[in-house]
């Protein structure tokens, strides 16, 4: 299924269920360490941060950055949030 069609379907179903959808740009999420915010190195599917030493699957690191952006967007809108419990990855 094409990305646009999938995103439209998700938005439709979420609206039907009363769930707010927040669109977040994925730009640079796979290059930035989600632990310290510095630029890291991606080698295949592995992400390494030379600044803090963090290592994990690159997709996991990117997903955590997207989550942080989404939480930031929601919190600036004034919603009450709780921090999700996160696993530690490979590092």
Describe what this molecule looks like in 3D.
This protein has a domain at 25-76. It contains two helices and three strands, in the order αβββα. Strands 1-2-3 form a three-stranded antiparallel sheet. It is of the alpha+beta class.
Taking all Cα atoms into account, the compactness measure Rg is 15 Å
Largest pleated sheet: 3 strands, antiparallel
| Count, helices | 2
Low-confidence stretches: none
Q: What proportion strand?
A: 5-15%
Task: Please give the order of strands in the largest beta sheet.
Answer: 1-2-3
- Class derived from helix and strand content: alpha+beta
What sort of overall outline do the alpha carbons produce when their principal axes are compared? elongated
The N- and C-terminal alpha carbons lie at a distance of 34 Å
| Helix/strand order | HEEEH
Helix content: 25-40%
Q: How many beta strands in the DSSP annotation? A: 3
Tell me, rounded to a whole number, the average pLDDT.
84
């Amino acid at each position: 299924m094409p990305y646009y069609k999938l995103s439209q379907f998700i938005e439709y179903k979420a609206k039907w269920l009363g769930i707010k959808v927040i669109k977040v740009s994925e730009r640079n999420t796979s290059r930035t360490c989600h632990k310290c915010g510095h630029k890291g190195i991606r080698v295949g599917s592995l992400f390494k941060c030379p600044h803090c030493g963090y290592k994990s699957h690159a997709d996991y690191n990117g997903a955590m950055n997207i989550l942080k952006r989404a939480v930031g967007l929601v919190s600036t809108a004034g919603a009450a949030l709780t921090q999700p419990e996160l696993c530690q990855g490979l590092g």
